[in-house]
Every structure is written in structure tokens, then in C-alpha cells.
Amino acid sequence: MHSELPKQFMLLGGRPILMHTIEAFHHSEYHPEIIVVLNVDFHQYWENLCVLYNFSIPHLVIKGGTQRFESVKNGIKAIKSKAIVAIHDAVRPLLSSQLIDRSFQQTELTGNAVAALKSRDSIRQQIGQQTIALNRDEIYLIQTPQTFTSEVLKKAYKQEFRNEFTDDASVVERLGIKINLIEGEHRNFKITFPADISLAEAYLNTGV
Question: What is the pLDDT of residues 118-154, one digit of tens each?
Fold first, then answer.
């Protein structure tokens, strides 16, 4: 993003991105308790932002780790009772309440739910110096939220970190648990590049 400021604090629609993300969960039908995992160096900064923008949605701030795996593990430790837990990227602020609700509903039925989209593009895989075409109808682009029972998450995150643990689904899958995909949303993209801010602003302005 060409900035020293973490992406979740950048402004979107006149407010930090993270505030939009928290609001999406707060306004969902399930009204879940919200845990925000942040680098400890930015706890005071976030507190100041909440005062500045009069942001009063209740949430618990937890110390983040050096990598995503450790941060999620820290967040899970703060959950003391049995629960359904949706883990979501702070910089996916445009998800709908409907997607959040479906995530919780599906997890109640099948034990987990991972938001995903079928690829719109042709896909090729590089193997050595060659590439091979893959069937795009069998390829899914994984999003968050990724939703599981707290019991499963706590067991999964007792494992030692592995390089293939790129998301929560890969950690849980290592236990031999089947991952259930639900349809994600194209507007639920991860803000990664400067142009993504403009695209997110466009979504907010049109209300689509």
C-alpha cells in the first residue's frame, strides 16, 4: 500500500477500514461478541481512533502475534466458553450481513463454513518450467469469514505451525476434518493495493 500505516487503519468512506469490518459483524443477525487482534504497538493508536471517530461498538482488543497463525491462536485463547467462531480479515470491510449470517447458520449445521468464490478466469499451474491448464470449475478462491466451533479451533491451533497453514481452513483440515465451502461475495475482496481503496469507495457510494 506504499504506507507505513497498517491497512486496517487507512480511511474508507471517511473512517478507518477496521471500523467498517466491525460494524458488519455487529449489525448481523447473530450480533457476535467481537475480538480484535492487533499488534500491541497499535493498541493505543486504535483506542485514540475510536475516540476520534466516536466509535462505540463493544469489542475486546487482544495482542497479535508475529504471524497470522499466532494471532488467531491468541484470539482463540480469549474465548472461554463453547461458541461458534468466525475469523475474518480486518481488511475485508465490505462483506454483507447475509454472508455473516450464512456462515454461522452453516456452521451450526455442518461444523464449519468457509466463504469462497469460483474462479472467473482460466487457471494454469506452474510445475517446474512448464504450466498446465486446470479446470476452473473446480477452482475456488478462498475468502473469510472462515467459521468453526470453538472446540475444533482450539484443538487445531494446538498444532505446531506449518508453512502450508495459509488460513484457518488449512489448519483445521490438517486434523482430517472436511471443509465446507459456502458462496462468498465479489465485494468481499481483501484490500491489498492502493487501487483497492478506490474500488471499495465505489462500492460504498453505490450501495451495491
Answer: 999 999 999 999 999 999 999 999 999 999 999 999 9
Cell of 82: 463453547
Domains and CATH numbers, the chain: 7-206 (3.90.550.10)
pLDDT (tens digit per residue) in 145-169: 999 999 999 999 999 999 999 999 9
Q: Concatenate the DSSP letters of all residues of the chain into one string.
A: ---SS-GGGSEETTEEHHHHHHHHHHTSTT----EEEE-GGGHHHHHHHHHHTT-----EEEE--SSHHHHHHHHHHT--S--EEEE--TT-TT--HHHHHHHHHHHHHHSEEEEEEE-SS-EEEEETTEEEEE-GGG-EEEEEEEEEEHHHHHHHTTSPP-TT--SHHHHHHTTTPPPPEEE--TT-----SHHHHHHHHHHHHHT-
